[in-house]
Design goal:
Chain lengths: 418, 265, 261
């Protein structure tokens, strides 16, 4: 199949789109950019995301871990996270899911009653299945609203798909050699048996003069010719065979697999991660998005309510990180292999980057300027009915400890350079 | 399909070619139509295989515009354009003197009409089954973004114009060439054509729901039931077949036997 | 040709050439019926109960057994009505069942497997052939639409679960995963992720109260049977109503256009 696809790719590239095909090769995302900005700036904020590898072979495993904060100013258009499934977004089942956890609790089932304003920690183990280069994201799905996608990282999978194997042993003792093929041949056999019987029944009638002659014979009240005694006897046989074979098949399966369980459907629960004792109070003042400058400017009053001086190290929203380059602890908080396209090159501009002393209230204006606003299609919040922006602020104390605070509010567009 | 011809009475006693089935059943144009459809639907499926995962996941990407929106911009005008050309041709070349139609030509046209309907059902298979479940493959597997997706761009904007081409084509053929279907308009035929045609405007309901409810992809969701109800109109085609029988039987006698034909309606 | 076939042709009084052409027309109609109803039944089923049929981890004891036969019965019942009423052919339901199963397997392979990379285990479909055969046979024997609805509709639904269990039982043996019980079907849904189809979206049994012999599946089957009785009555009539042979007079102006005025 792969060879056929390659051949077609070549042919279609040349015939249908010509030179355009070669031009458009580099960047493909997983559709997360097409998600509305309010879904990405005011729902789940993803942080501390790690991918254990960026290159692996079929059957090798990758571990994706991280945390998310369910943003307090939750948009009206999204259902509250009352039922949530922890998942991953990949282009199809190119990775097999081995394990997943939310706050250490197994996450095969969905979770109930997640709380906005609180943090959760996830872990998922994925086994490479189909070779290729894929964007792998953590994701949660919220009942009634759908998927919310975290940051994605490119992962290369080598090897051959045929080598993939996922075997299991049932509690009842059966050995499942491969979850991809288990039971398929039996199903095909049973379906073939039924198809043959049904085809024979249909052919029994179709082989005779079919529509117009039968229609005319019926008009002439010669029904006796259309359904003969032999037909009726055959009908009785077919009835007996259909009922008999159905229950024979049922009994056969019952004796072959005497121990079965229904689909498992309960929801899970985990309390959120413990609340960090708050170190700052944030009073949002205003936010503007400078359309030609691709820059978001936000003004806020920050009050340090801790006993240590603090500095602002990062503003993160929609999985894009604006990092204060002047603060080593903030820079160190960005893992070396974090996707570079999700870290703003210019960093975070801060009007007053000096320490905020304990008890001090300081007005800070931040400037988050990056082409990522456009590339990530985040500017359409200007056309939303609820034009607000939200994000997380990461403050650091002198020991390098990180403190997270939410910030957000209405945002105004600026269409002309001021 | 045969085109209109001026009906010239032919002598009843003609031996040879016009007593053979091949004189009445002409598969050439039909076979051509089916081959074109096979090639087109096959190419669409290959196109999805090759370009959907790579360029079809993000509707905001320039590659999506190049590979997927270009397709829509080509297929809608081309397919509907061909439709209008074909329907216009059928109308302009209509039989303008149907009361003088000979039974032989009429019988021939009944078979041509039958083949129009078979070609229509061929297109119906591809939208109702082949690409429709492919839509499930796509939307239940990836994140839904816009109404234009690698699945919809084939299912809605190629398959729908294709079956409309054949359904409306068959309808225009019948009302311009078959006396029974032009003297009166067949209710069953109208249902069989109009129901599936209305699937196109019903996209408004579907996409409105997906745009505002943000629902996850549930195929059995009531949001999709507009398609279901309109699809039921397929059940009207047996009615058309029964109407054809009403006229074909007297024609068989008229053409091949000694029994006089009943009036065309 | 069998004596019966010859007699039918004789009674029809078609001239030999007419009989030959009518046989060609038969095959055209067979092709049309096959293609049309592969499309129509599959579309109807996938948009009413498709999730239960497309995914192994939706095939539960409460809803799958209930809604699938009810949906699957509708168009085949209408076909059965037309084939029987006008041609005395007791094949409508079976034909519908066969066409649906073939169409389904084609898309499971071409769509889910080749395009979506899903293994066949994810999409093993259900079939209604057993019930459809029984319903057609009952119609032939009892020759009454009312009795066919009453017995055939009920048997159609009742045979759905046992006839499919033979194919599906292997997917319900128990597995231990992360210290919890899962059926193989649950595991297939979990292991091969669908980004647009989260676990909670499944409309499946969430638990039962008291049951007969510890399982609800037969109760669901019986309930499906009750609904199918009435659904069969309804769709038999819908089939006949849709196949109307009514013509509405066209306008004088139109008739003039085609030389009929």
């Amino acid at each position: 199949m792969a060879a056929i696809v390659r051949a077609w790719k070549l042919v279609l590239s040349m015939i249908v789109l010509g030179a355009l095909a070669a031009e458009a090769l580099p960047v493909f995302a997983h559709g997360e950019r097409a998600q509305e900005p309010y879904l990405r700036t005011r729902t789940a904020h993803w942080y501390d995301v790690t991918w254990s590898a960026d290159k692996l072979s079929v059957n090798q495993e990758i571990v994706v871990t991280g945390k998310f904060r369910l943003y307090s100013d939750w948009p009206d258009a999204v259902q509250l996270p009352e039922t949530v499934f922890v998942s991953n977004a990949t282009p199809g089942p190119v990775f097999a899911r081995v394990d997943s956890y939310l706050n250490g609790v197994p996450a095969r089932q969905s979770f109930r009653d997640l709380e906005v304003g609180r943090d959760y920690e996830y872990k998922m183990v994925l086994r490479a299945r189909i070779p290729g280069r894929y964007h792998v994201h953590p994701m949660i799905a919220i009942k009634g609203s759908g998927p919310l996608v975290g940051p994605g990282r490119w992962i290369n999978v080598g090897g051959t798909a045929d080598d993939f194997n996922y075997s299991l042993t049932a509690i009842s003792g059966e050995k499942i050699d491969d979850l991809e093929t288990w039971g398929v041949s039996a199903a095909l056999t049973w379906h073939s048996i039924w198809l043959v019987i049904a085809a024979a029944w249909i052919l029994w009638w179709v082989r005779r003069p079919l529509l117009i002659p039968r229609y005319l014979a019926l008009k002439k009240e010669r029904e006796d010719l259309l359904t003969t005694d032999t037909d009726i006897k055959l009908g009785i046989v077919v009835l007996v065979v259909a009922v008999g074979l159905a229950f024979y098949g049922y009994n056969w399966a019952q004796s072959k697999y005497p121990r079965t369980v229904p689909l498992q459907a309960g929801t899970m629960y985990t309390p959120p991660l413990p609340v960090q004792s708050p170190v700052v109070k944030i009073r949002f003042q205003e936010a503007k998005y400078d359309v030609p400058g691709r820059s978001m400017r936000m003004v806020m009053d920050v009050t340090n309510i801790s006993d240590k001086p603090l500095r602002l190290g990062e503003f993160a929203t929609a999985s894009i990180r604006f990092v204060n380059h002047q603060l080593p602890a903030a820079k160190a908080n960005v893992a070396a292999n974090y996707p570079a396209e999700l870290v703003a090159r210019n960093g975070l501009g801060i009007s007053d980057d000096s320490e905020i002393k304990p008890g001090e209230t300081k007005q800070i204006a931040i400037d988050a300027t990056d082409a990522a606003w456009e590339i990530e299609r985040l500017t359409s919040f200007l056309t939303d009915v609820d034009s607000k922006v939200g994000g997380l602020l990461f403050f650091f104390d002198p020991e390098g400890r990180r403190h997270i605070a939410e910030v957000g509010g209405p945002i105004l567009p600026v269409f002309k350079k001021s | 399909m045969s085109t209109a011809s001026v009906a010239i009475p032919v002598p009843r006693e003609s031996s040879g070619a016009d007593r053979k089935a091949g004189h009445y059943v002409r598969f050439n144009l039909f076979a051509f139509g089916v081959i074109v459809m096979v090639a087109m639907f096959g190419a669409f499926r290959m196109y999805q295989q090759v370009f959907a995962w790579e360029y079809g996941l993000d509707a905001t990407a320039p590659e999506f515009e190049t590979y997927w929106m270009t397709l829509v911009k080509i297929e809608i005008p081309v397919l509907f354009g061909l439709g209008f050309v074909c329907w216009g041709y059928l109308w302009l070349t209509r039989d303008r003197n149907m009361s003088a139609l000979t039974p032989k030509v009429e019988l021939q046209r009944y078979f041509s009409f039958t083949l129009w309907l078979v070609a229509y059902t061929f297109a119906i298979y591809f939208i109702g089954s082949f690409f429709a479940e492919g839509d499930g493959v796509w939307h239940q597997t990836v994140l839904r973004d816009t109404p234009f997706t690698p699945s919809h761009n084939v299912l809605f904007y190629a398959c729908i114009p294709t079956y409309i081409f054949f359904s409306v084509g068959g309808f225009v053929y019948a009302i311009t060439r078959l006396p029974a279907f032009s003297r009166g308009i067949s209710v069953a035929h109208v249902l069989a054509v109009l129901g599936p045609v209305l699937i196109l405007p019903n996209l408004g309901f579907n996409e409105w729901g997906h745009a505002y409810w943000l629902t996850e992809e549930i195929f059995s969701h009531p949001l999709h039931w507009g398609f279901v109800v309109l699809g039921w109109n397929a059940l009207a085609l047996p009615g058309v077949a029964l109407q054809m029988i009403q006229r074909m039987v007297p024609l068989f006698h008229e053409v091949f036997g000694d029994m006089p034909a009943k009036p065309a309606d | 040709m069998s004596p019966n076939s010859r007699e039918i042709l004789a009674v029809s009084e078609l001239p030999p050439e007419g009989a030959k052409l009518s046989r060609i027309w038969d095959w055209c109609v067979v092709a049309a019926v096959a293609l049309l109803f592969m499309g129509a039944i599959h579309l109807h089923v996938m948009l009413t109960v498709g999730d239960w049929d497309m995914f192994i981890d939706w095939k539960d004891r409460q809803f799958w057994v209930l809604v699938t036969p009810v949906s699957m019965l509708m168009i085949p019942a209408a076909l059965q009505a037309v084939f029987w009423h006008y041609f005395r052919l007791p094949i409508g339901m079976t034909l519908g069942a066969v066409l649906l199963l073939i169409a389904t397997w084609i898309t499971r392979y071409v769509g889910w497997h080749l395009w979506g990379y899903f293994p066949f285990t994810m999409g093993v479909p259900a079939t209604m052939i057993a019930g459809a055969l029984a319903c057609d046979a009952i119609l032939l024997i009892v020759r009454s639409s009312l009795l066919t609805s009453t017995f055939g509709g009920f048997v159609f639904a009742l045979l759905f679960y046992p006839s499919n269990w033979a194919s599906l039982a292997p997917y319900f043996i128990p597995i231990e995963h992360q210290g919890m019980v899962a059926s193989v079907a649950d595991m297939i849904g979990y292991v091969f992720p669908r980004s647009g189809t989260p676990e909670y979206i499944r409309m499946i049994e969430r638990g039962t109260l008291r049951t007969y012999e510890g399982t609800t599946v037969w109760i669901s089957s019986f309930f499906a049977g009750v609904i199918c009785i009435f659904m069969h009555m309804l769709w038999w009539r819908i089939g006949l109503a849709f196949s109307t042979q009514r013509f509405v007079d066209s306008s004088k102006r139109f008739k003039k256009f085609v030389g009929l005025a």
